[in-house]
Amino acid sequence: MTTLTNAPLLIVGAGIMGAGIAQVAAQAGHSVHLYDLRAGAAAEAKARLGATLDGLVAKGKLAAEAVQATLARIEPVATLQAASSARLVVEAIVEQLDAKRSLFRQLEELLDADAVLATNTSSISVTAIAGGLQHPARVVGMHFFNPVPLMKLVEVVSGLQTAPAVAQAVFELAQAWGKVPVHAKSTPGFIVNRIARPYYGETLALLQEQAAPPPVLDACLKAAGFRMGPCELMDLVGHDTNFAVTASVFAANFNDKRYVPSLEQREMVDGGLLGRKSGRGFYTYPAGVPALPVPVFEAPATAREVAVHGTGAIADALEQAAAKALAAQGWGPSRIRDSGWTGLQVDGARLVLTDGTPACEIAARTGCADTAVFDRPMLLPAATGQALAYAVNAGATAAWKAQAPAWLHALGFTPLPLADAPGLVVARTLAMLVNEAADAVLQGVCSPAGADAAMKLGVNYPAGPFEWLRSWGAAGVIGVLEALDAAYRGERYRVSPWLRRGTAPT
Q: Does the N-terminal peptide bond of residue 286 adopt cis geometry, omega within 30 degrees of 0?
């Protein structure tokens, strides 16, 4: 097996994923047999695809001749035997191991020994699917993302017995189809579904300890560049589906506490609050995410001294913003680079960039009761009105509890209050995403470049985990993780050995 160029295909499963894969293959010039166990389903899927493509013709986005050629290459078949000439099968059937194994055993009796058997599974072990087959070396994962014609990512997943030549042939085929393939090892969740767990998990943990309501947590992460906040995204995916994936990854990793499902989400599933599909999840639909109340902030009080502490891009941006805020008074902030923390000092009070340590602990350590912490900003300079989480030490004076958000607002942010939770929202979420990606690389699941491509293309992250690592630095990520581990104890926040070794991302 060296190439699958122009190979005849069999797509098994005529649902949304199967029909999408058939469309992409046919548009690339392949002859495609489309089969579904339910009689008539394949023909219905082709008819729906024709209507969709005709709509694109009407809008001037596709040529009628191209649509006719694409549809002519897709042939619904009533039996698997009718597609015995296929050199590549992509199954997109029900997400059940026994069903996939049974299908591939049938296909082994029908197809040539060098035909490739690809599974579109999103979570089932490719090694397990191939188990017991006569030729397990030809079984490979070809995990597309929905909607298939639009989403560029394809995870090419190798089981223990997958032949490297088979994986490479599928990789090159995906490239020929205009996709961006990434190699992955068959481990629970593969790349995307594994690395993405903390995006949901940290928000669910914060909700469980009542740190902030869903609209605040969503606003903070959208300000960091994510297209959807985790609460609205879980509502879109469906809490039953999201919870099932988390539970599956948790069980497959022998109950590793890093992937522990959320009691909060289980309650929602048990109560039928599944999100958009049920009309209610974290939010009520069709209304969706409510607008946050328009905040009103005090003006910063006249200060005797304002100093910006720290080094790096965030400290530099804070200095520029503080200089702008103080310009009307005819003076600017001083800069202290060697104090060991980043943030703003206003007379005796401190506004500290989170390193994962809660404000109450910083106050106890430094003896400065007037301490507040703020989350890691992602858009610099700060004069953009971006939402930013902050927390104030409970023992601070009433004046500083009002002045901390006033100064953040003067620096260009829209400060949103949180309970004094370790790592706040963005910092703890990014640290855990980076940590999970580092473990995936450590275990040979993917490369750093593969992880970055997968998360940006598969779930539309604003950057890849290793891009965040390069901009933040391993010491900063490790510091947040260690603070989280100290606060919560247990295995969840253990630091990946890959990060501790100081391995340079490539």
A: yes
Q: Determine how β-strand 371-374 pairs with β-strand 387-392.
A: antiparallel
pLDDT in tens, 294-337: 888 888 988 999 999 999 999 999 999 999 999 988 899 999 99
Nearest-angstrom CA–CA distance, 292 and 222: 13
Q: Is 177 helix (H, G, I), strand (E, B) or coil?
A: coil
- Whole-angstrom CA distances from 106 to 84, 99, 111 are 11, 11, 9
Decide: helix, strand or coil at residue 364. Answer: helix
Report whether 106 contacts 10 (CB < 8 A). Answer: no
Task: Round to whole Å and give the CA distance between 102 and 14.
Answer: 18
Domains of the chain with CATH codes? 9-186 (3.40.50.720), 193-278 (1.10.1040.50), 306-417 (3.30.750.190), 427-500 (1.10.1040.50)
Q: What is the pLDDT of residues 219-270, one digit of tens each?
A: 999 999 999 999 999 999 999 999 999 999 999 999 999 999 999 999 999 9
- Cα distance from N-terminal residue to C-terminal residue, the chain: 30
**Residues involved in catalysis:** 122, 143, 155, 193
In this prediction the pTM is: 0.94
Helix (H/G/I), strand (E/B), else coil: 10: strand
Q: DSSP state, 312?
A: S
